[in-house]
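Review form for a predicted model. The reviewer records the input and the model, then writes brief findings.
Reviewer: anonymous (R2)
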Amino acid sequence: MSKKSYAVAILGATGAVGTRMIEQLEQSTIPVGEIHLLASSRSAGKTLYFKGQPVTVEEAKPESFDGIDLVLASAGGSVSGRLLPEAVKRGAVCVDNTSFFRMNDNVPLVVPEVNPDALADHNGIIANPNCSTIQMVVALEPVRQQFGLHQIIVSTYQAAGGAGQSAINELYAQAQEKLDGKEMQANILPVKGDKKHYPLAFNLLPQIDVFEDADYTHEEWKMIHETKKIMFGDKNSTDIKVTATCVRVPVPIGHGETVYFTTEKQPTPDEIRASLTGAPGVVVQDDPSKQLYPQPINAEGSRDTFVGRIRADVENPGAYHMWVVSDNLLKGAAWNTVQIAEELVARDLVRVPAGAADLFA
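Model under review:
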């Protein structure tokens, strides 16, 4: 039997995603009895608001999770890795927006429109996928269900906001510096901790996260393995081929993606549009005669994933293109996290199975 109300903690409450989690939780179906806003010691003592009521931000410590039912986390991977096992030990179910647990075989990786049934096997921690992966699988799942999928080749056009509010602020500052005829200062992108930094304003950066095996970036590998885990339950599945090129673009909020895919059947573009029309979380904006197609500037602030430019590859039967846009801080992060929590409540899964805490010890 579901509880009448839940004690909810937001970890990383003062960040770009955390503040949006608060807003999404306010609008959600989750009956919140208590709200605890947690952050680093630097932010402790600040006042934020939940449903119009002031809430003092607390420093996140293991004991912060005593009596908590649900944790929504977006405070960085190292923080999640250190504190979420402590929360699980204390009986809290955690939905984590970082990459720390995504490839852990004991942790389901969930997009509610695609694989909500994976929640049934959770061990106290559920991972929220990468923002660029989320919008792509939301757009492709109806296609996969009706026509099958063989291969995905995706190129992303990812907003500065994917690197946090500081990256948005730096983008604006660089744009002003360029317009003022000054040298643009770069301290964050492509990767804050990497050796070199480049301006994003008036530029494109074909590097998101660090370079890894085969000269793919970590972001590109994330899209590959997360897609396989979400759609086929195995991060190394051979049931589908996936490859990615991830590019940071000078847009504040809203990721765009060109998605090239091959199917088992050979539907017409109209049949693909029909499969997407009315699909959960999907809005089709596709009318070339009216120059109608998704744009990040219009997607900002929406929970939906927008799909357009659906067309067949005229050189390769069974291959297709689509253009996918979504607010990376909402559907790509805060809203998907809260949406997972809604599913947990609706399915009466807000409980930690016996012995689960030992998996993360």
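Findings: The radius of gyration is 20 Å.
Further findings: Helices lie at 16-26, 77-89, 131-147, 165-179, 218-232, 269-276, 296-299, 330-346.
Recommendation: see findings above.
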